[in-house]
Amino acid sequence: MELFHVLSAILAVSAFFAYINQKYIKLPGAIGLLLAGLFVSLLVQAIGMISPAFIDVVRNNLESIDFADFLMEFMLSFLLFAGALHTNLKKLAASKWPVLTFATVGVLISTAVVGTLFYYLLQLMGMTIDYIYCLIFGALISPTDPIAVLGILKKADIPESLEVKITGESLFNDGVGVVVFTSLYQIAQLGTENIEASSIGILFLEEVGGGIALGLIIGYLAFRLMRNIDHYQTEVLISLAVVMGGYSLAQMLHFSGPLAMVVAGLFIGNQGIEQAMSKITADYLHKFWEMVDEIFNAILFVLIGLELLLIEFHTIYLLIGLITTAIVLLVRYFALAIPSYALRLHRTFAPNTLAIMTWGGLRGGISVALALSLTQDMQREVITAITYIVVLISLVVQGLSIDAFIKRLSRRNMNIES
């Protein structure tokens, strides 16, 4: 019952600040609610200076929600399915090779390079930690967050072809990133001497291949069921069963739940709506999942802001976080550019595609959740604090400036052409 009260309070705070944001501030919803959560955290800390018992009560209530489990085991399935459901598969298919390349090769390059540079940066700062934990940091910070990306790009004036690449990549690289993180996590737990390269390769193929296959199977089964009836309440209920039952099944089979939800969402949102639903059902399905998406996003970004209360910060973390943010951005550009030029994918790109994908590749709650899932002996405090700083800068600075960034590049192109 205590958990219910905590979630009720968070939802009430989310609703209040969502209203304030829409009425007066008019920031993108994700950023407005994140800043609201930060504001509440700072307010609680200010009150805690007067009454230390108050901040302890708030922290204890927040700790009753395991943020990592709450996001990864519950919210993520709904949010990924909703995002994929509203993605046009035909447009995505036109960019399939860049999307798949960036979501796999790009993530692996970024994980290795960010992890290595992070290792040497910490050494320069006098904070030596094992290389494997730095690679884990590289894995959790490399994928762009589809929840943040989809939420903020809705408000951005971005070319449609480029939006498809960014959203498509973010939907798939999240699943790949979680698999890479899981593999490195197991290596850290068992030790490199007890892990063979072949077993990691098999795990990777099992998670990715199994997740995609499961998504296709449950998506197709739902499609067949929906095609045999015309009752929007039942069809919405079937979509809920796909998300909750499919994600649980993926975990039981040790497949990638995120990838399964993306594939199932794409299948139902395209084939299902075109061939298995009436216009009334399609309209209800879209509106239902749009509301689920908005509500869960509101809760998620307020929670990210509130998590500040549970993270121990030192001054040195802020400096490391700022430098690491620059590293992550720089490495993302090269992780996109290397496969693009090596495979000649860049020939089909609009001008400034790689620069915009770099700046529009936002980090979000998934990175924070993965960091919080680490054990204390995996340098959880350091990695979580740095992750939080990178995510905060990514969402606020990059998220708020993406429109201006695109317009500035467009003006530069016009000046060069003239």
Could you please describe the fold and organization of this structure?
It is a single chain. 82% of the residues lie in helices and 0% in strands. It is mainly α and 418 residues long. It has a domain at 72-292 and 314-358: Up-down Bundle (Na+/H+ antiporter like fold). Helix 9 (160-190) crosses helix 10 and helix 14 runs antiparallel to helix 15 (353-359). The longest helix has 38 residues, at 380-417. It is globular. The protein starts with a helix and ends with a helix. The mean pLDDT is 88.
Q: Give a short account of the largest sheet.
A: none
Mean pLDDT metric:
88
Poorly predicted runs are none
CATH architecture of the domain at 72-292 and 314-358: Up-down Bundle
Shape: globular
CATH fold type of the domain at 72-292 and 314-358: Na+/H+ antiporter like fold
Portion in helices = over 70%
List SSEs in N-to-C order: HHHHHHHHHHHHHHHHH
Given helix and strand content, the structural type is mainly alpha
| CATH class bucket of the domain at 72-292 and 314-358 | Mainly Alpha
Distance between the termini: 66 Å
CA gyration radius, whole angstroms:
21 Å
Beta-strand residue fraction? under 5%
Query: What is the count of DSSP helices, taking H or I runs of 4+ residues?
Result: 17
* Strand tally: 0
